[in-house]
Automatic annotation (TrEMBL):
InterPro entries: Gln_synth/guanido_kin_cat_dom. Keywords: Ligase. The lineage of its organism: Eukaryota, Viridiplantae, Streptophyta, Embryophyta, Tracheophyta. The keyword Zinc-finger does not apply. GO terms for molecular function: ligase activity. It comes from Hibiscus syriacus. This is GS catalytic domain-containing protein.
């Protein structure tokens, strides 16, 4: 897995890139209000046995708070790790609310 910024050309970020938008908002908050935006995520997911419709386990994963850009990366990596480990054990991890 690779996390990437969207660019129109090298060195020119696409204005609608979510990662760039988050950096821009963070910079405005810091420059104009002297605030640092932190975020913390708590993901709830369900583990299902493949080919069955009912869930077997409900799990909550709390990720500590940090700078918002770093927190967003941690959330993506955590979700991908959960999916990979579940798959290795013949399970399906779903982050869709029940």
């Amino acid at each position: 897995m690779v996390l990437a910024d969207m660019h129109l050309r090298p060195g020119e970020p696409w204005e609608y890139c979510p990662r760039e938008a988050l950096r821009r908002v963070s910079k405005v908050l810091k420059d104009e209000c002297n605030l640092v935006m932190n975020a913390g995520f708590e993901s709830e997911f369900f583990l299902l046995k493949k080919l069955e419709r009912s869930w077997k386990w409900s799990v909550e994963l709390a990720l500590g708070h940090s700078a918002c850009t770093y927190a967003a990366n941690k959330l993506i990596f955590a979700r991908e790790a959960v999916r990979a480990v579940a798959n290795k054990h013949g399970l399906l991890a779903t982050f869709v609310p029940k």
